[in-house]
Amino acid sequence: MYTNDFDYYRADSVGEAVELLGDHDGAELVAGAHGLLPRMKTGDESPPALVDIGQLNGLDAIESSDGGSISVGALATHAEIADSEIVREHAAALADAASELGDPPVRNGGTIGGNLAHGDPRSDPPAALLALEGSLEVRGSDGERTIDAAELFEGPFETAVADDEIVTAVRIPTDDDAVSGYRKRRDPLSGYAMVGVGVWLRTDDETIEAARVAVTGATTTPARLSGVEDELEGSAVSEETITAAAAEAGTALDADAFVSDVQASAEYREHLLTIDTERALYDVLDVGQ
Amino acid sequence: MSDADASGASDGDGSGAFGAAIERGEDVPLLTGSGEYTDDISLRGTTHLAIRRSDHAHARIESIDTSDAEAMEGVLAVFTGEDVVESGVPNTIPTAWDLPGLVQPQYRMLATDKVRHEGTPVAAVVAETRHAASDALEHIHVEYEELEHVTDPVDAVERDVPPVHDEAEDNVAFDFELGDADATDEAFADADRVASVDLRQPRLIPNAMEPRAALADWEEATGKLRLWMTSQNPHLHRMLLSAGTLGLPENKIQVIAPEVGGGFGSKIYHYPDEAVTAWCSMQLGRPVKWQATRSESYLTDCHGRDHVTTGEIALDDDGTIRGVRVETHAGLGAQLSQFGTATPSYLYATVLSGQYTIPAIHCRVVGAFTNTTPVDAYRGAGRAEGIYVIERLVDVAARELEMDPAELRRRNLVPPDEFPYESAAALVYDSGEYERAMDLALEHVDYEELRERQRELRDEGRYIGIGIGSFIESAGLSPSGLAGDLGAQAGGWESSIVRFDSTGSVTVLAGTADQGQGHRTTYAQVAAEELGVSVDDVTVVEGDTDRIPQGMGTYGSRSASVGGGSIARGAREVREKARRIAAHQLETSVDDIEFDDGEFHVAGAPDRSLHIQTIAHEAYLGHDLPEGMDPGLEETNFYDPENFTYPFGTHVAVVEVEPETGEIEIERYVAVDDCGEIINPMIVEGQVHGGIAQGIGAALYEGAAYDDDGHLRTRRMDEYVVPHATQLPDFETDNTVTPSPHNPIGVKGVGESATIAAAPTIVSAVADALEPFGVDHLDMPITPESVWRATGGDN
Amino acid sequence: MSEHNISVTVNGTHHELTVEPRTLLVSALREELGYTGANVGCETGRCGACTVRVDGETIKSCTRFAVQSDGAEIETVEGLADDGELSTLQEQFQENHGLQCGYCTPGMLMSADTFLRENEDPSREEIRDAIEGNLCRCTGYHNIVDAIEATADQLGEQR
């Protein structure tokens, strides 16, 4: 119930937050606290210091920029993202994931930056970010850099965001000819994804020109499903294509990539991944079923 | 027969309170945040207790070093089991139910020799703040010698594992038999068919939303202990603390149960933790508070169920049930909790006849010690496990006979004219109209049409299932003499005081203890009806041993029948005394006084009358009472029922199963309950709803598991689900009313019925849906994966 | 150990207090300020008994440190009734028997109250989604859904 004792610093700017992280060994960032605090209560994490960026101004903006992308401030809550018309229009998969995450108070409290930096493999946004080929804008003591989704998820609760870096925004490229979505099979126990599939497709109505499909929840690390993507790209928009593509869901993943727990075995998750990939594709494509 | 002993429905004249859907008087404080739960109460100088628990399932304690923890800022004291022993208190957590040959190992507040399950208390820290107490825990250094452990009740007795207790080398705490083995063997030999099922009923964690808590205040000057705690039975806690654990005279202990946030059995028991809280206050002379975390609840609140069973049923080809044979290994956990022995023995085996006429029944239960959290009664306790077995057997038999499961039930129901019915499992059922309730439930779902729709859908590759759960419950364990013969160390009675105050209001002091059931409302309805006053004139007081002289508490669906029965009897005594005063003051004989709507009047002369509230005033004035009558208008009642009551009913569920994923969707859930006379239909419905939710939880979601290291695998709320709003359907409820003939107000109780019914009903529905796949049973919790595997999805 | 001075407004009343960094918002409300309506039912942010409104949005107050709420406007169950007059939602919970032991009720009410501000005519399914983060072990939710539905109807009639 109780966390360890720690020192608390409130940052008034991103720069100050970076400085505070550098000054205090082992310090962690906190904003919504929804990822970190429960893990501190169970003793899974016990940082000596927390740097609070929850009250930084301007980091929660959701904006569409001219250069073919949208920017979601790191402090935007899941509820704000789920309700954002900009996200719904340009990055539906992220809006879906945000609206499926946790429950209403959790969506009000948790922030997208913290969620993605935390790297919880059961969480919903990672699959959306991977499918959308989004990226994180981060700032650290060495300045700013961009981390592409493909480089972000390194393992369970491990991401490429360094200890002294702050996520400032999530950037997602937009494409008017693309559709995207996220389908979740909720773990009845935890409410996290037992299987979550994010899809992004560009079509000319007859042919799938480009495809990006990603999984969360089923695997120990969120991942792209390249077997599905290869099958989809260049194929006709049809039920046959969807069936054939979904059948490839597990092929590019290692056998030990799947999570096994008290609710669902790896074998079952692998089975569900095929089904849910198929259903996620039907969700976004105007075909059959 | 005196008026006070009259049975049947409430015969009080007047207010019409009994049977009305009155809103609950207890709601306003709870809706506004002002209701006080134990942790909401603070005394000046309150200190905080945190308990260091064993991380091991089974280990010998080699040493405990508390010096680092003691040196920490804010820490007042760190105590070990040795400190408790040295204090000279009796230091026993007693069992409350003996069985023949029962092995009763030592059970202390804090472990001194071995830890026998993960979560065993080994040391206690008292500090000025919660943070300080919690911080100190990890600075207590405990050295253990780990021992091999066992968590499964079958493994415990059949595998060569070290004993949990040296006193029970084979880990058998008891080997219990009920029924006639020879007659059952004969019935099986004679019958046309035998069907059987092997099943497990997993451990359930009660999960009252309020975790357990205690606040103890020892007053050295008077030698008195006040203990606020999350209790379903404050008087029982007072008795066990006095006689078993602390050695204080009972009249020097006050146990108070303030608002209690749910119990479902888990707050019946006398656990080490609350006792340690009290003991620490006695050592330090300061108030001490302990509030369990949810994780502590998972590790220490008594779990329920944990049965491994083989059941067999013998039938003739026409569906007549000839006999039932059951063998069960019941996990008891590492220690014997108070009713941990009664629950899997008498409360279980005696209901195996269910609603059916079964000539021969035999049941054997091996109670096994395991290195797990103690197991005791959880909502439905014993009856839930027993009804689950008989209902699974009936379904499996119907499949075997290729007979409709409703029809097979119908052919074997105990008919209404057979009551009182003595079952082959040693109970005498009081009353029942089983077919009426079953028909009503089937009617609600349009059973025949539904079967037709099921056939049609199957042709389309869709699988719906219709589940039926017909149940009885033995509620309100009694009479005391019978309970004693069976081994109970407590009575089955209930006590109350019904008191007119001098200005005409009524105070009811009841020995039961509410945790959400709404006693303050229903008891007021019972008293108001009997006394002819308004419900608003009645105040019900519970949960304080200094205010309420005696009581047994709230569990086993007993409050309405035994507690309510006591209040009705007391109120009738009060009314009769008032009648004698009325006769005296109206100058006529008692026989000429009629009572109507609170008014005593002379027969044939309605204008010569006195209201009962006026008489109350006269009774306390004492100026003009019948010769020899003592002043005052109150009665203390002890009610010891002549028998259990037997609620019953039939629940029907309609589910759709998607074989491809194993997902189960509950389309409809219909509950028809008969709990005898209904005091408040709104509250009865609420009890049924909550009971269904817990039964569905058990069927589809819940189940505690241990890992290979003997650690609880489901140790947090995101690992063991309490069903949430999106996981449960709307419920459709209905009632039939078959009064209990022996209860003063005709009620039977309803606290556990729906939990008992819902689990077999849902399992029945899923198995029914999967008939085309040849699946006749799946163990709980039925996860989508287990459905997927059962239908061959993994091949 | 460092301590921090913070100020919060709870149900319109301004409070200043000193907290350790690790003091949870729910602990500050209950133990420092005496708002014991919000309850603690778990430590994983699952049960929702501690749900309060912070700056207009529901959050689980066990999943936030008090120090993070410096300057916040907090609303708790104690603020729902108006001068002793129950709100429509509270009345409907009583009328529909939407509570039994009452432990989850403060959080449940805060979630429902907030939901109804933005959803005038919700379906039962939407209501169930809205209270997904608030666990109740007593009622099976049916009557809670009834109570929220009835509140929406009644508020709709008043509009």
TrEMBL record, chain A:
Pfam families: CO_deh_flav_C (PF03450), FAD_binding_5 (PF00941). Keywords: FAD, Flavoprotein, Oxidoreductase. Residues 1-177 form the FAD-binding PCMH-type domain. InterPro entries: CO_DH_flav_C (IPR005107), CO_DH_flav_C_dom_sf (IPR036683), Diverse_Substr_Oxidored (IPR051312), FAD-bd_PCMH (IPR016166), FAD-bd_PCMH-like_sf (IPR036318), FAD-bd_PCMH_sub1 (IPR016167), FAD-bd_PCMH_sub2 (IPR016169), Mopterin_DH_FAD-bd (IPR002346). GO terms for molecular function: FAD binding; oxidoreductase activity. This is Carbon-monoxide dehydrogenase medium subunit. It comes from Natronorubrum texcoconense. The lineage of its organism: Archaea, Methanobacteriati, Methanobacteriota, Stenosarchaea group, Halobacteria.
From TrEMBL, chain B:
Pfam families: Ald_Xan_dh_C (PF01315), MoCoBD_1 (PF02738), MoCoBD_2 (PF20256). One of its GO terms (molecular function) is iron ion binding. InterPro entries: Ald_Oxase/Xan_DH_a/b, Ald_Oxase/Xan_DH_a/b_sf, Ald_Oxase/xanthine_DH-like, AldOxase/xan_DH_MoCoBD1, AldOxase/xan_DH_MoCoBD2, AldOxase/xan_DH_Mopterin-bd_sf. Keywords: Molybdenum, Oxidoreductase. Residues 32-148 form the Aldehyde oxidase/xanthine dehydrogenase a/b hammerhead domain. Residues 1-20, 545-565 are annotated as: Disordered. Residues 1-10 have a biased composition (Low complexity). This is Carbon-monoxide dehydrogenase large subunit. The lineage of its organism: Archaea, Methanobacteriati, Methanobacteriota, Stenosarchaea group, Halobacteria.
From TrEMBL, chain C:
Keywords: 2Fe-2S, Iron, Iron-sulfur, Metal-binding, Oxidoreductase. One of its GO terms (molecular function) is oxidoreductase activity. CDD domains: fer2. It comes from Natronorubrum texcoconense. Signal peptide: none annotated. InterPro entries: 2Fe-2S-bd (IPR002888), 2Fe-2S-bd_dom_sf (IPR036884), 2Fe-2S_ferredoxin-like_sf (IPR036010), 2Fe-2S_ferredoxin-type (IPR001041), 2Fe2S_fd_BS (IPR006058), Beta-grasp_dom_sf (IPR012675), Diverse_Oxidoreductases (IPR051452). It holds the Pfam family Fer2. Residues 4-80 form the 2Fe-2S ferredoxin-type domain. This is Carbon-monoxide dehydrogenase small subunit.
